[in-house]
Structures are given as C-alpha cells and as structure tokens.
Amino acid sequence: MNQAAIGIFDSGMGGLTVMRALKSALPEEAFIYLGDTARLPYGTKSAATVRRYALQAARALAQRQVKLIVIACNTASLAARELAETLAPLPVLGVIEPGAAAALAVAPHGPIAVLATEGTVKEGAYARAIGVSATVVQQACPLFVPLAEEGLTDGAIAELVVRRYLDPVLNLRPAPRALLLGCTHYPVLRQVISRIAGPELALVDSAHTTAAAVRELLTARQLRAEPSARPAPRFLVTDAPERFARIGQIFFGEAIDPGQVELIDLQ
Amino acid sequence: MNQAAIGIFDSGMGGLTVMRALKSALPEEAFIYLGDTARLPYGTKSAATVRRYALQAARALAQRQVKLIVIACNTASLAARELAETLAPLPVLGVIEPGAAAALAVAPHGPIAVLATEGTVKEGAYARAIGVSATVVQQACPLFVPLAEEGLTDGAIAELVVRRYLDPVLNLRPAPRALLLGCTHYPVLRQVISRIAGPELALVDSAHTTAAAVRELLTARQLRAEPSARPAPRFLVTDAPERFARIGQIFFGEAIDPGQVELIDLQ
C-alpha cells in the first residue's frame, strides 16, 4: 500500500480526459494534476522546447512526492524516455504506447489513421510505437484544440472543421480500420468525429488504455492506495487558475472548484 | 539621421501585420522583429504573465541597440507604460492608443465595437484608451487567432466563426459605428469580417495608425534613417523558425526566408 499521489501533467486542460479515466479506474488514488497553462499549447512547438517544458513539469511533480508520473499529453510524451531516465526510480508513463496498443487491438494489420497535433505528427511518435505490423496514416488537426477549449464540441462549426481534417483520411484506399485520437483534447469531440467517420470505423483513444497500464504498474509494484480512501484531486497550473477551472470542466466531466487550483511557477 | 533598427515584438506572427504597415510607411528603416513563438498565444494568459514575457522580449530588443520598440500585440500592450519606464529613454509604443484614435476618428461618439482576445477584453484596455467620449462594446473572439494561423481566412468555416462572434455585436441598438480589430492577427480576416459586417460599419485596425505614430515620433526626435537605404528585415523567434517563416507569410504579405529567422532564448 502506498498513499502517495499519482502525478499527471499536460500543457493545459486536455490531460484532464486522461485523469478522468484514471480516477474512474482507480477511485481510491490521490491525484495531483499539473497544467502548464502559461506555455500552452505544446502541439505547435518544437521537440526541444517541449522536452524542456516537460522536464520542468515532471520535476515539479517529483518534488511533491508522487509515486508515479503520467504524461497526459501526446506531444510531451516524446520526452517519456528521457524523463524516465532522469527521474528513475520514479516510474513515468506516456500516452503514446497505450494509444498505439489500443489501436492495434482493434486493427492489428491497420490501416490506422492517427489524428494528432502538428508536433506529434512531425515526430511520427505513433508510427514508431505501432511499428511495422500496421500501416499508419497521420493527420494534423490544428483547430481541434482551440475548438475544444472554446466548448464548440458540436454544431455546424465543429462539423465543418472535423470534415476538413477527416475527409482526406476517409477517402483513403484501403480504408482505415481504426481512428486513433492522438491528442488528449480530442475525446471531447468524439461524438461529432464518430458521426462523420461512420459506424464502420473504430474510434480509439489512449485514456482508458493508459488507465489500465497505470493500474497494472501500481499493482505489480505494490504501490496501490488503501481501497477505502476517496481523496479529492489537487490541481496546479502555471497561469490563470480561474480559466483552468472554468474550461477544465469540459475535459474533466465534473466541476472544478477554482479554490482547489494552485498557481505555481515552473521557470 | 539614425541607422539603428526599429524593434517590434509580438507573441507570434500577428505583429507582422503591423510590421508590414511600418515597412510600407517607412521603407528606408531597418526592422528587427521578435516573435515569442515558444510561449504564444498571449491572448489567453494572465496580465502578470504577459507583463513578464513582454519585459523579456523588450529587453532582448534593447540589447540589440534598436532606436524604438513597437509592441505589435494588443494583449502585450497592457505592459506599455511599465516597459517605457523600465527602458527609458528608449521610446516604446503600443498599438492600443493608435487603434483607439483610429476608431474615434471614424466614430467620435461611438458606439465602437472592439473585437479582441480574451486577455485584451478582460483588461478593458480599449475602453480605457477610448475614454468617456464614446460607448465601447467588447467581444472576445478566441477562435480568430487559430483560424488565421491555419490560413483559414475565407470560406465556410471562417464565415461561421466570424458570424458567431459578430452576430451579438451587429444586433446591438444603437448599432456600432466602428468595428475595431483589436488584435494584430485579425486584419487577415478583414475581408470576411467586412462582408458580414456590411458596408455601413467602418472597419479599423491599429496597423496604419501605429505606423503613422512611429513616423511622427522618429521625425520629432530626428531618428529617421537615410532615405536611400532598403535594409532587409531581421527575424528572431523563441521556437520553430521554419513554422514562423511558413505561416508568417500570411500576415507579412511576402515570403520570409527561413534562413533569415534566428532562434533565440528569452528565459
């Protein structure tokens, strides 16, 4: 048994979709969520800059004695190996490997279409994680994050934007068998994506497989918390706590009390 | 005569619309443009964070011996007075006062509708600059910056998004007499905004009045450059020079050679 918290970080609010899945799978665990809101988004930034920011965020969580760190941001997951080496023996998990596993589970031979940020597409992170067993098609969707953060998760604007990015993917032959939401912001657009993609195309995201991977790791290392606890999550942000609480609800699926959100400095 | 460059900074690429107007009004001047692309956008960040970033950017320009600094970002213009005090006697100009003057010139008694980022709206910067002589209505347009950076400056998506923000403004009674584009990104959406706003509503932005204010100040202080010169502009960015060169063209209106764009660190 280990009552220490699980640390989760993201550039902003998207990672709250991962935290939501984690909290649902592991309700007895304590969570500390860090959103680097002063420097969001990461998706349009270079790998070197994202790596530097991710290291600062992970260190801030490590200083708060977490027992495990989840990089709940696809773009920042490119730094997963480096963070794991720097922070060892503290375990570090990204969302890329669980996401790739989820897609391979439904479409073992592909083609797998990955929707992601410019940064993730440029790094080819999913193509590497999926490996040679399946064909991978990548599509950058730069407007999905601002749409999601504006709460425009359905309606005419969302439909047109989703069509803009999905049309080239849906017209591919052979047609993709799995559509992987490769950014933690995208699950809030799931309904409209799914409607446009049609019932034949399996939609997968990494939130639930990441939660399963975390549970497995905690169990294997005997790090799970007392089953009776139901601790309230803590939130840390680098800017604008009130905005985080307000917009974060879209992703977390429940209200966030602005008083629970603490402003910290990562410089 | 003074051959030193004019320094211009913005969170990213929007300020290039101001530099374009400056270069056209003052073709003999040298320009150094700094885009803080590692930390863009500023529009959703708190005043304290924007102030800190703006000071770092202005100092980086001052170290490069510029003769004048233009804050080509409405959100960062909130730090104009502080920057002027810190960097004196180096003159510092923001875009808020020139923008307010341009709106008052076409609609002296208002109402003036200001389209701007969340940050600028929250600060009420234009309402303060316009003062008591005209009624001011503010409308935050958080999707305009991502649309502009995606190059979606016309077409169905741009129309729907512009309508979403403009409809409440256009339905006001008494109707606004001037529509002020209170973010340096917005002029690239000018055509679709103007089509939806209709011919009765005067559209103003701060780029041209800022250029006029800069020319006036340089002339008054005898800081203008030799009229024969046509120096090439320099570009500094804090991240992703290739992306800056590619997307920057939308705002600058001419090609930017990636080899001209230098990566610097503001930390």
Short description:
The structure is a homodimer of 267-residue chains. By secondary structure, chain A is α/β, with parallel strands linked by helices.
Using brief descriptors, characterize the structure shown:
Rossmann fold, four-stranded parallel beta sheet, 2 domains, homodimer, six-stranded parallel beta sheet, alpha/beta, 267 residues
What does this structure look like?
Two copies of one chain form a homodimer. Chain A is of the alpha/beta class and 267 residues long. Chain A folds into two domains: 6-94 and 208-263, Rossmann fold, CATH 3.40.50.1860; 96-206, Rossmann fold. The first copy, chain A, has helices spanning 16-25, 47-62, 80-87, 96-106, 118-123, 125-130, 144-149, 156-170, 190-197, 206-220, 241-252; strands at residues 6-10, 31-35, 68-71, 92-93, 112-116, 136-140, 178-181, 202-205, 234-237, 261-263. In chain A, the strands form two sheets. A six-stranded parallel sheet of chain A has the order 4-3-1-2-9-10, with helices on both faces. In chain A, α1 crosses α10, α4 crosses α10 (206-220) and α8 crosses α9 (190-197). The first copy, chain A, starts with 5 loop residues before the first strand and ends with a strand. The relative contact order of chain A is 0.20.
